[in-house]
Specification:
By secondary structure, the protein is an alpha+beta fold. The chain contains 20 helices and ten strands. The chain has a domain at 196-478.
């Protein structure tokens, strides 16, 4: 195509040049010489944003002129995604675009058909979003709203960008921004590992306070039937029935780090001088996932699918860390059978220790310092692979002490827990093999993904908003937010502009 005369850039950017000149004049004035530094900052922040917005607007106006000249040079045949020819050309069709600098107007040519929607080839070149708000503004919204309340995020955006976004639309942008996360990780290729590297999977659940209409039906019905002791607060052991359970999953790699029981638990009397604990395994290449809309079965399936992608030939050792919830164990075993992989299920040692401490207070007075050695003795026995013997010993101690059913409640709970999970308490084998035996990664995930944001005071969530925030916090915790955002923009472009148009030389 022959080159056409280009508009003068000095003419196109005259408005921005005038704003810049006015700003320079004001900064050089005697009045500005008396401003404190923070007042200069405020002046530059406000006037500088106006200047950047005008530069953006002038650039868009220049593109409009170039597009009009391009269609004058060569009249293209423009088709829509529906395959229909748009033969009629109309100039000057405008739409608003809210950006991080303020709101600008995008004017471009429209190609029309009486029985079909208009086609704007310039929109594809600019990769304009579906709605009014730019990808840059949506990105800023995501980074703010996944860390702070909607009110605080909205205030932050208004302070930086002006009034370009309402709080309701802020929530909508988050939902739209999270739509490609599953596809992003399905396409992700992770660094291969040697067969000796342990592949660790873990899952857990945590409740999120929801609006009444967003509760699962079972929870809503149970809350309606529940009778509370007090009118203004909950009594001990009572639940409010306001939470919906979110399921979290984690997958990571770790090199084996063999240890002994006393590397985990300090023995009674402490260590001899010079003793050095062997370090435990260190997690790397951590991947996190979570959902409040999908059930635990779906999330655990995602965890296994991700692990399968890391080790498709099942050459590595798979270790699954759980807290002992029966439903969770059943789902893990079902997924292992589905994937044809032998997994080693290990129950979190911290949960076992909590049960041991509950049993300890059945035999000790509050404040008794000997309770610590009592717990350490039984914990070391459990770590040595003697969980069954510990359960028998606790039951015998309670019988000999003549404790009532109420007094021995902690003991009975501990005994049932140990015996019910005896197949998953082979800590002697896990320590010798160098596997992790604690769910610190998934517990930290529950804190980072949910508690730090979704549990802030006064928050009541709908399922879509909670799901979006939870899913967007996961790639942030994985260190993948920027890579995901590039993937999301590319996916959004393909959705909005699926067919290649004749771009008739739109030069920007």
């Amino acid at each position: 195509m022959e080159r056409y005369d280009m508009p003068s850039s000095s003419d196109c950017f005259e408005a921005a040049t005038n704003l810049f000149g006015a700003l320079v004049t004001d900064l050089a004035s005697p009045e500005a010489g008396g401003l404190a530094h923070h007042e200069v900052e405020d002046l530059l922040e406000e006037r500088g944003r106006d200047l950047l917005r005008q530069l953006f607007q002038d650039h868009l106006d220049l593109r409009e002129k170039r597009e009009q000249e391009a269609v004058e040079q060569r009249r293209p045949r423009v088709f829509g995604a529906d395959g229909l020819l748009r033969p009629r050309l109309e100039r000057g069709h405008g739409r608003l675009l809210a950006t991080v600098f303020g709101t600008v107007t995008v004017s471009r040519c429209a190609w029309r058909h009486l029985e079909a929607s208009n086609v704007h080839p310039a929109d594809e070149v600019l990769s304009l979003p579906r709605g009014r708000h730019s990808h840059g503004l949506a990105h800023l919204t995501v980074r703010a709203a996944i860390r702070m309340s909607y009110d605080a995020a909205h205030e932050t955006i208004v302070r930086r960008c002006g009034r370009v976004l309402g709080k309701r639309r802020l929530a909508g942008l988050l939902v739209e921004a999270a739509r490609d996360i599953d596809g992003f990780y399905e396409a992700r290729v992770f660094e291969p590992c040697t067969a000796s590297t342990v592949l660790v999977l873990s899952a857990d659940g945590k409740g999120i306070v929801m609006r009444p209409e967003a509760l699962r039906e079972v929870t809503r019905q149970a809350a309606a039937k529940r009778q509370h002791t007090f009118r203004t607060r909950l009594a001990a052991g009572e639940k409010s029935g306001r939470k919906r359970m979110a399921t979290l999953g984690a997958v990571y790699d770790t090199e084996p780090a063999p240890r002994r029981p006393h590397d985990v638990i300090t023995p009674p009397g402490g260590f001899a001088d010079g003793h050095v604990r062997r370090p435990g395994p260190v997690a790397r290449s951590k991947w996190l996932v979570g959902s409040v809309e999908q059930d635990a079965e779906h999330v655990i399936a995602q965890v296994f699918d991700h692990a399968q992608a890391r080790d498709p030939d099942h050459r590595r050792t798979w270790v699954v860390l759980v807290d002992g919830a029966r439903h969770q164990l059943d789902l893990v075993q079902a997924e292992a059978r589905l994937h044809g992989i032998d997994v080693h299920i290990v129950i979190d040692i911290i949960h076992v220790l909590e049960k041991a401490w509950s049993a300890a207070w059945c035999f000790h007075r509050p404040g008794d310092k000997t309770v610590e050695d009592w717990v350490a003795t039984h914990a070391l026995a459990i770590l040595n692979g003697d969980a069954e013997e510990v359960a028998n010993d606790l039951q015998a101690q309670a019988d000999q002490a003549g404790l009532t059913s109420e007094q021995r409640h902690g003991v009975d709970t501990c005994v049932r827990y140990l015996r019910g999970n005896i197949d998953f308490l082979h800590y002697d084998q896990a320590l010798a093999a160098g596997w992790p035996i604690a769910t610190g990664i998934i517990e930290g995930t529950a804190r980072h993904l949910i508690a730090d944001r979704l549990d802030i005071g006064g928050a009541r969530w709908g399922p879509a908003g909670a799901e979006a925030v939870l899913k967007l916090r996961a790639p942030t915790a994985n260190g993948d937010l920027e890579a995901y955002w590039r993937h999301h923009i590319a996916a959004e472009h393909r959705r909005l502009y699926p067919s290649d148009q004749d771009q008739y030389g739109l030069i920007a």
